[in-house]
Amino acid sequence: MPGKKRAFIVGIDGGSPDLIQKWVDQGKLPAFARLLKEGVFGPLASVPNQRSAAAWTSFMTGKNPGKHGIYEFYEYESGHQNLRFLKGGDRDGATLWGMLSAAGRKVGIINVPMTYPAEAVNGFCIAGLDAPGRTSRGFVHPPELLAELEQKFGEYVLEPGLTGHIVSGDTAGAVETLWKELDQKAKVVRYLSENKEWELFVVVFRSLDAVQHCFWKHMDKEHPYHDRAEALKYGSVIQQAYEKVDKCLGEILDRLDANTSVFVISDHGFGAKHQATTQLNRWLEAEGFLTYRREGMGVRMLGAAYRTVVGRTFRKTKEKIWRFLPFLRNIVQYQLCFSQIDWEKTVAYSDTLYPTIWVNRRAEGPFKGAPSEAKYQETIRKLRERLADCKDSVTGEPVVGEVFEKNDIYKGEHVGKAPDILIRWREDRRINGLAGLKQNGQGGGTHIPGENPEVISGDHRLHGILFARGPAIKAGARVTDTNLMDIAPTVLYAMQEPVPNEMDGRVLAQIFDDSYFRANAVQRSEGGTEVASRQEESYTEEDEEVIAERLKSLGYLE
């Protein structure tokens, strides 16, 4: 449509501002260097828990997790004895592209997490990693687009499965698969952006997250699992992955017209993984908040058997096991993470997958059901007090940067789903682990191969990246105080569309030329609830096992 403003969004899952700046300075990332010169750049704050499912959903809705209801790729049910896997269809609220579609604008969406089933947008949508697979019903809209792409570029790679290769001892195979996936995504982006109509185009390079999770130790000489011989072979893999994305980004910039704004964002940053999170239950035990029963032989045998199945069995064999025993994953997950806990004596606990703590509200717990407000607040006060004194196991330095209560960081009708406390570890120092753990503590924090710190050596950090270039956007400017929730309203403003009042994010006035922003007031609407029609797809038991296996391999699930 002539005169209409367009936008192109490139998502880099786990994009690190420090790495990008370093490699720009070294001349390794010319497209990013071009954006630094021609547009604005700054750190982009993630959602409080820095988890991809919550972050990408906040990006697409402009809302905090308390409103859209997605905190993780899963949620616990029945006293943590069952996992319910979440998908885009479980989101509460409209997406940026759903709103634009409802307004008659053409959109194209590729590989954004938490978009399954694909929305029936005015344009096309290829779902992200919450889709069970490329052949799953509802993976692509319109459905015939998949055949069109696969005829040109071969079987579509949804996730490269790096961790599975690495656990089986085939690190070289992991790298080969990564290059195949990145090269294919670049070809798909070029083809669709050149051959389909669009006014908003969004693509996320998900595998940048996976490669940093798996290869950080090879790049980081100070990482406890760094091996010089392995580093000679794999120490540059992360940099090469960024360079491949940079090449694709350069091609995109060359093709965009003067009427199109480009935004390059990430859902969080990246850094070295440490053991503090996986040690949280042992720390709670040492501090008297959690009590373990003696670990039985059955749990040890189950853990050993499960690690063998996940880490040493061929993928096709594992898929058959999951298909015939659909209940196995829930039982094993509960047994390994929670079965040793003495719930009658435990006041607070963690699932040790990300740094959060739950107050025990079980009927058999010390509060005999939901605690009174006074008991709850006293528990929270004691936890905050002890966390403030939490020290590094080697240096003795404080390791906790901030402690948040859920009502302080989330707002909306879904706040009740959130853990009671969120811990933010310090990012200005290397953390070796938590001090003061019981040497004979029962809670060892069983590691599945896909979550083992020897395999998953990198982890999320609070600040990702924001680059923006386009009509009326400043050139060569640095910006601060930006949040992932600000992207949706800012893109709507750049495309001259109204911004719904229900969004928590704000239009980033600081990225636009001052005279332009003064002359073009932000339009507001009471809308935002209108969505493109959703394909009503539910996970089958087999789908859930596929998703469970994928999340384990990415370090999102134990």
What do these coordinates show?
The chain contains 20 helices and 20 strands. The protein has helices at 17-25, 30-38, 52-61, 65-68, 96-102, 144-153, 162-167, 171-195, 207-219, 228-234, 237-255, 280-286, 297-312, 315-324, 328-337, 373-388, 406-409, 487-494, 514-519, 541-553; strands spanning 6-12, 40-45, 74-77, 82-85, 107-112, 123-127, 140-141, 200-205, 260-265, 269-272, 348-349, 356-359, 400-405, 421-425, 458-461, 463-469, 477-478, 482-483, 499-500, 524-525. It has two domains: 6-67 and 93-272 and 460-521, Alkaline Phosphatase, subunit A (3-Layer(aba) Sandwich); 277-293 and 340-445, Gyrase A, domain 2. By secondary structure, it is an alpha/beta fold. The strands form five sheets. Strands 1, 2, 5, 6, 7, 8, 9, 16, 17 and 18 form a ten-stranded mixed beta sheet that branches.
List the helices and strands and how they pair.
Elements: E1 6-12, H1 17-25, H2 30-38, E2 40-45, H3 52-61, H4 65-68, E3 74-77, E4 82-85, H5 96-102, E5 107-112, E6 123-127, E7 140-141, H6 144-153, H7 162-167, H8 171-195, E8 200-205, H9 207-219, H10 228-234, H11 237-255, E9 260-265, E10 269-272, H12 280-286, H13 297-312, H14 315-324, H15 328-337, E11 348-349, E12 356-359, H16 373-388, E13 400-405, H17 406-409, E14 421-425, E15 458-461, E16 463-469, E17 477-478, E18 482-483, H18 487-494, E19 499-500, H19 514-519, E20 524-525, H20 541-553
Helix pairs in contact: 8-11, 9-10, 9-11
